[in-house]
Design a protein that fits this description.
The complex is a heterodimer.
Chain A lengths: L1 E2 L1 H19 L14 H24 L6 E2 L7 H24 L1 H15 L4 H22 L14
Antiparallel strand pairs in A: 1-2
Helix pairs in contact in A: 1-2, 3-4, 4-5
Chain B lengths: L1 H10 L2 H19 L5 H12 L4 H18 L1 H7 L11 H9 L3 H34 L4 H17 L5 H16 L16 H4 L4 H19 L19 H7 L1 H16 L5 H15 L11 H17 L1 H7 L5 H12 L7 H5 L1 H27 L1 H5 L3 H20 L2 H19 L5 H23 L11 H29 L8
Amino acid sequence: MKLNDLSLGILVLLSGVGIYLSALQFSPIPGQAYGAETMPTTIALVAIGLGVFMIGKAVVVRNAAPVLALADWTRSPMALVGLSVAIGLVVFYILFSQAIGFVPTAFLVIVTLMLTLRTRPVTAILVSLLATIVIQQAFGRLLLVPLPRSALGFLW
Amino acid sequence: MSVIVEAFGLVFQPNVLLVILGSACFGMFVGAIPGLTATMATALLVPITFFMDPVPAIGAIVTATAMAIFAGDIPGALLRMPGTPASAAYVEDAYRMTRSGRSEESLGAALVFSAIGGIFGTIVLVTASPALAEVALKFSSFEYFWLVVLGLSCAVFVSPGSVTRGIISLLIGLFAATIGIDNPAGEPRYTFGNVELLAGVQFIPAMIGLFAVSEVLRSVVSRSERPPVPPSSGDGIFRSQWTNLKRYPVQVLRGSVLGTAIGALPGAGADIAAWISYAVSKRFSKQPQKFGTGHVEGLVEAGASNNGAVSGAWIPALVFGIPGDSITAIVIGVLYIKGLNPGPTIFINDPQLIYAVFIVFFLANIIMLPLGWVAIKSAGTILAVPERVLMPIILMFCIVGSFAINNSIFGVILMLIFGVLGFLMDENDIPIAPAILGLVLGPMLEQNFITSMIKADGSFLAFFERPIAAGLGLFTIAIWCLPLIAMMIARRKRTAPGPNAPD
C-alpha cells in the first residue's frame, strides 16, 4: 500500500492546510505574540512547503509509479485475513474485555491469532492458555494492574 | 566518594541484580529473533519497568538493549537474517564465515568486540557526561532550543533513506505532541472533548504501537519460515579473539571511538554507527577486496561500533535530556514518568542515580560475555520458536502493557492507532525514529521556543546572540544545507560531462 510521491505530496499538503485552518481557533498567550497556535501553525507551514516541494518534484521527474502501489502481500488472501484478524482482535479486546473479563478475552485473542497463522490447534490452545495465565499472574497479581475481571468470577 | 558507595548499594541488591539478569536474558532472546528489534525489546520492557524503582527500571533497559544489539548478530551469522538493523551492515561477512565452518569465530568476534565497544562507550559516558553537565548548567532556553532542533535535524538528515520522508515522520511526531493542554498557553488542543486526550498522547502506548504492534502486523502479512540453523562450527567462541584483537587493534579502537561519537550525536544510533564503521573499515583496510567474502575485519570494527553507540547515545540523553536514538527517546520518556528530569540538574539532584546507571552499564557489558556464550550455544533452540506462536503472545503483551500505564482501555485504543500508523509508515518507507523523537521532544521544542521569543521580545536574532547558541544554531543550519549541497554537486556532475561521456 505504497503511495507514489505525487499522491504522498498531495496528502502532506492537504494535511498541512487542515492543520493550519484548525490552528486558527487557538489564541496567543495574552499580551504576547505567541502561544498555543505557534506550534501547530509552524508544523502546518512546514507540511505545506514540503507538500508543494514533493508535488513539484514528482511533476518534474514524472515517475511512472501508480498512485497506490499494492505490495506483494496484498495479493495473498492469507496475509489480508491475518492483518484483518490481528487488528480485529485488538478491537475485540477494546470492546469486550471489560464485559467478559481478562482471562477469556486474552485467551481468545491469542488462540485466534495463532490459529489464523496456522499454528497446530493443540499447540495453539496449550500455549495460549499458558501465556494467558503467565500474563495475568505477572500483571494482575505481581504488578497489581487491575485487569478487567470476569463476570464468571473464577475466570479471573 | 560516598555517592559512589551509595550507587553501588543501589545496584548490588538481590532484586536489582535479578532484574538485570532477567532483562539480559530477555534482551538476548528478542535480539536473536529476526524481526524483533532492540527498540522493540525496550518498548516491551517499559510497561514492566513502570512499576519498578528508577535504578532497576533503567538497569533493565540498559541491559536489555546492550544484549539485543549483540544478539542481533546471531541470526545474521547463522541464517543471513540480521536480528536487529544494527547487525545488517556486516551480515554478509558473518554469514560467509559460518558457511566456511567458522561460525564460532564469527559470533565470538561479534560478542567480544561488542563488549569491548560497549565498555569503551561507557568509559566515555562516565568521563564526559559530568563535565558536559557542568557546561550544560549554563544553558538557557536559546541553547536548549537549538539542541532540540539539532537532535530533530540529525534524526531526519543523518538517518538512511529519503530526507522528505524523514521530515514527514518528524511532522507526525511533532503534531502528536501538540495534542492536549500541556502547552505554554495552557489551551486544550485537538482533544475533541475527550478527557483522556487532555493529558496529551500517552507516550508509552504510542511507542508500543509504533515499534511493537507495527512489527506484529508486518510479520502477519509477510510470514517467512526460517531455514534450519546450521550446527555450531569452528574452534571455540573465545579462542580466536585474542588473535583478532592483536591483529586489528586500530580497527577496534576506531570502531569504538566512531560508534560512541555517532551514538552521542543526537538522533543517530547503533544502526547508522555500524554502517558507517563498516564503510570506514573497508576504506582503510589493507585488504578491502576481502570485505563481504567472510572477512572478520569489518565485523570486528562495526561490532565494536554499534555497541559503543548504545552507550554513547546516553550522553546527550542524560546531560541535555535530548535522546541520541529511539531507545534513549523511550528512556527519556521513562525518566519523566518517574519524576526525574533528565538534563544537567540530574547530576546535582540525583548523582547516586547517575553513578548507578554507569555501574549497570559496566555490569551489562561484562555479563554479556557469559550470557552471549550461552546464547550462541543455544541459538538453535531460540531460533526454533516460530513467529506464528510468538507474535500473538507479543500482541497480547502489547495490549496489557498499554493498558497498565493508566489502567485505561484508552491506552489500548492509542496503541492500535499508532500501530496501524507505524505499519502504514513502514509500507511507505517513512522511518519511525524521527516520529518518536518528535513526540518526545515536541513539548521541549515548543516550551523553549516560546520562552525564548518572550524573553527576546520577538526578535529572532536573540537566538544567535549567545556564543554557544550561535555555534549550535550555525551547526544546525549547516546540517539543513547538506542535502542542498549534495544535490548541487550531483547536478554539476551530471551537467559537466566527463572525458568518457557519450555525446
